[in-house]
Amino acid sequence: AQSVTQLGSHVSVSEGALVLLRCNYSSSVPPYLFWYVQYPNQGLQLLLKYTSAATLVKGINGFEAEFKKSETSFHLTKPSAHMSDAAEYFCAVSDSGGGADGLTFGKGTHLIIQP
Amino acid sequence: NAGVMQNPRHLVRRRGQEARLRCSPMKGHSHVYWYRQLPEEGLKFMVYLQKENIIDESGMPKERFSAEFPKEGPSILRIQQVVRGDSAAYFCASSRQSGANVLTFGAGSRLTVL
User: What is the tens place of the pLDDT at every residue in A14-27?
Assistant: First the structure.
C-alpha cells in the first residue's frame, strides 16, 4: 500500500519569497513521485516527476523537487514566488510504472501568494 | 492535439436522477483512468479501463457506479440514482501505455446533486 502526506493544507508566501511545499510518502517498493498543479476550475497539470533517475528533478515554471529516500520526502520548491503560482498543488505516488491503480494523491496544498 | 476532453464541464442533477460523464482520451491513448475529487480532498482513484475492458475497478463504489470504454467513442462514467454525497469533481486521465508515469488529465466534470 502507498500513501502521501502533504503537510499544510494552506501555505502563504510573499511574492519573491521561497516556496516550499512538503510531501512525504510511504511505499513498499521504490516509488515514482509526482507533483501536479491545479489552477481554479481547471484540471491537473504535471509539474515534474521522479522516476528513479536524478534525485533532484526540475520541472516547469521554475519548480524543482528533491527525492530523499532516507526521509521519504519529495518536497517542492521554487526560489522566488510569482503571483501566477497561486494554485492547488498535489503530490502523488505510484509504486510501479506499470501499476493498474494509477496514482495515489495527497490532499493538496493551497498556495497563496501575498503581494 | 486536443488533449483529454471531458464533458459536460458542469452537471446538475436532482437526487435519484442519473449522471453520465464522458471522457475522450488524447489521440493515440488507449488507457483511461477516472478519479474523484471531493471538497477539501485529494483525488481518489476510481477505475482504470482499456478499450472494452475494465482493468481495475477497486476504487469504484459497489453500487450505482459503472464505467465503460467502448471500442468506439468516449469512456463513460455512469452514476445511477445520485445522492448529495456524489457531488464532486470527476477527472479523467489517459495514457498511451499502462503505468501512472504518463497520465494526462482532463479539466474535469463537476457534478452537483441538489
Answer: 999 999 999 999 88
